[in-house]
Amino acid sequence: MDRKIYGTIFDIQGHSVHDGPGSRTLIFLKGCPMKCRWCSNPEGQNLFPEPLYLKQKCIYDSLCVRGCPERAIKIDNDILLVDRKKCANCKEYLCAKVCCSGALRIAGRRVSIDEVFTIIQRDRAFWGNDGGVTLTGGEPLMQGEFTLNLLRKCYDSYIHTAIETCGYVSNKTVKSVLPYLDWIFFDLKHINEKKHIEATGVSNKLILDNVKLVASEFKGRLIFRIVIIPDYNDSDEETKAFADFINSLPLKIKEVNILPLHHMGKEKYAMSGRDYYFSDIIYENEERLFEIKRIFNKNNIECNIGADTPF
Known about the structure:
Blueprint lengths: L5 E11 L7 E6 L20 E4 L9 H5 L5 E3 L4 E3 L11 H5 L5 E4 L1 E4 H12 L7 E6 L6 H13 L3 E6 L5 H7 L5 E6 L4 H8 L4 H13 L3 E8 L7 H12 L7 E6 L5 H6 L14 H13 L3 E4 L6
Parallel strand pairs: 2-8, 8-9, 9-10, 10-11, 11-12, 12-13
Antiparallel strand pairs: 1-2, 1-7, 3-6, 4-5
């Protein structure tokens, strides 16, 4: 059964220590229903593999133009242009294969569950007693069948499992993976629906419904993650709204991991032909993060900043 189930991933990273207990193997799955303006992995938003273009390496020899079977690439006045919508139909990725300068590479590849599990088993020797696997993305639950079966295979092999999710998928999909998860990192963006739509492109109603579902039925550890965005979700009122929502949930332990805005994914926006909304915004007010932490603590919610976590 597993051999017939395929998914699309864009990276696998070993030795991660920030996305669950111990040393972990991170599996990055392609596809996300949201378009967060601060997304650090824009190459993970589309479900299909797509070319990343590094302009500094391009020698403009037109091999990629001639090699592309979808006619998605053209060069105009020494500017290479890619129509990435056409890339959705591509199965050969000849543009990257014929690029001798390394200016084009493909983000994403189709893999079977057995292929991924072989890598997981290889890494397992380096985890120690507390490590495991964390699925992230993109949004892992957009590839629901693949994610469910990979988690089940890990869980049945006594591997600690975790997932990072935005929760914008069906209740049924969320419910299906709960028995095979030990930890869930649930990303929250904003409690106000209008502001949520403004920055992500989607309503938060389904997300909040899924949070309530997880809080009611999940037996493992639930940790909320919030990227703190200046002038978007960093006010006292917005922090209190997060706290009030979390306190309305039937949870014995309430945990939040707040993350400062960073620009580590900025270069990938240019490489994937996307505009980066936060180019000129830098979050330098470290004290504000501690003020937000104190608001959560005052509302009886454990709060950790960035990588300074108890796991």
